[in-house]
Structures
1.
Amino acid sequence: MKKVCVITGGGSGMGFETARIMGKDHYVIICGRSVKKLEGAVSELKAEGIDAEAFPCDVSDYGSVQRLASHAKEIGRVAAVIHAAGMSPHMGDAKQIMEANALGTIHMNNAFYKVMEEGSCIIDVSSMSAYLTPKIIMPVGLYKLSTTDPGFFMKKIMKRVKLFPKKVQSGVSYGMSKHFVIWFAKQDAARFGKKGVRVLSVSPGNFETPMGDLEKDEAETYMKNCAIKRFGYPSEIASLFAYCVSEGAGYLTGTDILCDGGLVASGVSAFKR
Ligand SMILES: NC(=O)c1ccc[n+]([C@@H]2O[C@H](COP(=O)([O-])OP(=O)(O)OC[C@H]3O[C@@H](n4cnc5c(N)ncnc54)[C@H](OP(=O)(O)O)[C@@H]3O)[C@@H](O)[C@H]2O)c1
């Protein structure tokens, strides 16, 4: 039976680099909305001798994610899921960002919970923004609704986002959505644990990817006091993802790993750069 690794956002950036590593000993399914991007990525992977396929999927649509999960199970044993798909403040409005990042993570965990078996692992990709956005604005009291009624949760959290001035709403939505991802992955560890499956989140700092390029100016102002004064390379976060899903990390679950070159440790925040 094939050992399958599913990577959302696998057509570019961190997801694509992860496919290059995971593809050494897994059959890789890469997903995203843009078919052209996925097909280009699959051609590159195949040229490196990697057995990979493109599966178009919009993570904000549960039907689409369910089709992805059923397809992955048909191909083989779903050994690893790296949910790297996401949208940053430069990529959409507040609602689209919340739907891709928060609702997308609920959909991925719920659909893959049904098809993953003992020994496998799912990583939900968050962001250091979850650490930099002031805690006081995080609507933590609403998060639990996501486990019973994702639609109602989305309505309530978007109401909170809309309390902020229009020009900061997409940034607020990004910070909140990524803070939620960490919470969601943590609370899901017990549910997945009953099946012998691990779930954790990883929070990247500034990385050299198409998304990272869009945030470059802001990132550079943050980086002045950072321990490592450069962007992270996609291969560096891909290696971390690959380790986290490996057997060697078999005791790692229900936690978040911040990989930001020491940026958060430098004491910066949304108000202090
Ligand atoms: N780069 C950074 O500095 C940085 C920092 C912190 C966190 N992150 C997080 O790291 C993850 C990977 O980002 P990246 O840096 O590798 O950027 P990227 O190259 O832009 O990758 C994001 C991927 O997500 C896919 N995507 C977006 N919305 C989607 C949706 N609704 N359904 C399915 N796929 C969707 C995009 O493909 P399509 O457009 O074709 O759908 C794209 O391939 C993201 O979750 C991001 O928030 C990145």
2.
Amino acid sequence: MSLQKITDRTFYLPGANNLGVIATGDGGAIAIDTGIDKDTGRQLRKALDAAGLTLRAIINTHHHADHIGGNAYLLRNTPGVQISAPPLEAGLIEHPILEPIYLNLGARPISALRNRWLMAQGAPVHQLIGDIDHIQNGVSMHVEIAGVSLDLLPLPGHSPAQIGIVCDGVCFATDSYFGTAVLVKHSIPYAHDIAAQLASIERLATRDEAWFLPGHGQLSPRSEMNELLEANRAAVQRSSDLVLQTLTEPGDVAAITARVLRALGHALPGIPQYVIFAGAVMAHLSYLEQQGAARVELTTEGVLWRR
Ligand SMILES: [Zn+2]
């Protein structure tokens, strides 16, 4: 796989997770995310070599294992590389065990959750970029990385402090929206905070960059974005409506997750996929509570959600 050129200074390595590349102009390169493991790290390194670029810096947009898994390999194999990430995400990037811990109700992760999909190899974050309040309030910022001035676009929601990067008319939008095929496959687009996810979609809708690259999906020109963002908005709204519909009788998160899966006719292949799906259902319950559409209480039957 070779680097695909977007503009004179921007490129990407297409894959299950698209990786962004920004040329520094003096032979260097900044990578935006590193893929799921050392193999994606190696593919990125080879693609940079073939393009005559030397990796100088890595920006991690958020902490999910499929975005940071190549960090450790690239740090080991490219001298002087610096990793930058937003606050909060950085702690999870440095300590990847935290992802299976939170997916396991805070307990020591069960063996099914200790895999490369949920737990990458850790690596130090050398530079925190962006201010956590600005990111969570949607305020854009400038950052300088490897001598290049970049716009940092707050895109929280999918993850608590996710950021996008804007350079040269290209918006590296990471998991703030998904390509159509990914939306169809996952039914409920994964998120941590639904209100923030919707606000980030609206923030993207106001952007006028020429190109947009999602973490999972195709590179799109601006002319395709209204339709894509509308499909994402609709998928999030449909998910919330579906979770609300399952609250015809009270239930705990496990019962509601089972009802949602039944309604979708969706079977999950394993425990990792289940805990991620249940996490997304929980995000919608939390959103419905925030909207005043659902409430939760402790009963002798457990923690039950109702309309
Ligand atoms: Zn993600």
